[in-house]
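=== RUN LOG ===
request id: a7f3
mode: sequence -> structure
chains: 1
length: 65
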Amino acid sequence: MIAFDTVPKGDVSPGLLGFLVVAALGLALFLLVKSMRKQISKIELPSETDREDADGTPNGATRAP
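=== RESULT ===
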């Protein structure tokens, strides 16, 4: 006879439901990272000259009170 159940009764395995939960979490993580990269690429940082012009002092210099 061929035994279809190769896991002893006392052992616990995640089964199909466990696999589906992990696969869904992996897919959600992939989509979130993809969206985050898209949003981060939209951010425009000001150049050094723009920052210099905004406060009137060269970069690294402190203003006198």
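=== NOTES ===
The longest helix spans residues 15-41.
The two ends are 91 Å apart (CA to CA).
=== END ===
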